[in-house]
Amino acid sequence: MDRAQKAAAVAELKQTFSSVGVVVVTRNNGMTVAQSTRLRNAMRDAGATYRVSKNKLARIALDGTPYLSLGDMLTGPVGLATSPDPVAAAKVAVEFAKGNDKFEIVGGAMGDTPLDIEGVRALATLPSLDELRAKIVGLIVAPATKLATITQAPAAQIARVLQAYADKDTADAA
């Protein structure tokens, strides 16, 4: 990597660190290409990204961002999982670590707040941003649905009573 490529990599990492909600640092000793591809695809499907970066370049990129606390975690072959949604990257990383012994979570950070392994696992148990939005919409729509059901019920009962009288009159006439 020449100097220009390094500068571009640092600028890209700095931009990433400035725009994400969470960074999860992982160690991936001996993962195969197929495993890495599966991990990247799972991250992409969840709206997150996963990349392996040179530690020195990542430390330089951390300067001036809220994720400065990650510098101590960047030792050995590490990967960085990032996502704008504070839960997405953590969920995928924790789920992938359960089925792969060569992939371990080192820690992470949510802005200025550093996270240890247990913090990342706790973050992964929270509902994602999309799940929270769906719950809020459900809570907003539920009263309107109940109100519509309640207001339609008396009209339906009256219609059934009238239909019963109509059926009774046709039965008496026959």
Provide a descriptive summary of the structure in words.
This protein is α+β, with helices and mostly antiparallel strands and 174 residues long. Helix content is 59%, strand content 16%. Helix 1 packs across helix 3 and helix 4 crosses helix 5. It is elongated and about 100 Å long.
Shape: elongated
Q: Main sheet, how many strands, which sense, barrel?
A: 5 strands, antiparallel
* Euclidean distance between termini CA atoms: 97 Å
The neighbouring-strand order within the major sheet is 2-3-1-4-5
Give me the strand/helix succession. HEHEHEHEEHH
Q: What fraction of the residues are assigned to beta strands by DSSP?
A: 15-25%
Strand elements, count: 5
Poorly predicted runs are none
Features:
174 residues, alpha+beta, five-stranded antiparallel beta sheet, 59% helix, 16% strand
Secondary structure: elements and pairs:
Elements: H1 3-19, E1 22-28, H2 33-45, E2 49-52, H3 55-62, E3 78-83, H4 88-98, E4 103-110, E5 113-115, H5 117-125, H6 129-173
Antiparallel strand pairs: 1-3, 1-4, 2-3, 4-5
Helix pairs in contact: 1-3, 4-5
Q: Summarize this, please?
A:
The protein is α+β, with helices and mostly antiparallel strands and 174 residues long.
